[in-house]
Amino acid sequence: HWSKRGLDWRRLDPTQQVRYFYLTTLEQAKTHGIGRASGETPSQYAPRLAKHIAVAGKAAEEGVEDSEKGNNDQQAVQKLTDAFMQARYSKQPLQKPDSTAIARIWENLKVYLSL
Predict the structure, then answer these.
(1) Are 53 and 60 in contact (CB under 8 A)?
(2) Are 96 and 83 in contact (CB under 8 A)?
(3) Which DSSP symbol is given to 5?
(4) Cα(83)–Cα(72) distance, rounded to whole angstroms?
(5) CA 73 to chain centre
């Protein structure tokens, strides 16, 4: 459990940061009853997570078109998922700009998962 270790993610290298962002998102989602199922790939899980975030964030973002909001949620979750898959399975390490962009996405997703 990454989030329970009390890690300061800023001290991790970019690849480890992206893994931290994804895994802590999974832990937070699980506490809301939308955990990733055993055998479910990150790509299979992403649309389900995005749908939950869109529902949770509807009240928080009044005035934003539902289709626009849904697309933004899907894109954010997909970017986090893609970055995690690269961090997890690629032999090429991520760079600081990659993890910085994902950190912004992660911060926004955390807000919606805590609603």
Answers:
(1) no
(2) no
(3) G
(4) 16
(5) 10
Cβ-contact 29, 47 below 8 angstroms: no
Give the residue carrying structure tokens 């992403």. Answer: 46
CA–CA dist 83, 65 (Å, integer): 27
Give the global pTM.
Answer: 0.82
Residues in the chain: 115
SS3 95: coil
Retrieve residue 45's tokens. 């899980």
Tokens 């807000």 sit on residue: 111
* 80's tokens: 């986090």
The model's pLDDT over 8-60, given as tens digits with 9 standing for 90+, comes to 788 889 999 999 999 999 998 998 889 999 999 999 999 999 988 887 766 45
109 vs 50, 80, 93, CA distance in Å? 9, 10, 24
Token representation of residue 55: 């529902």
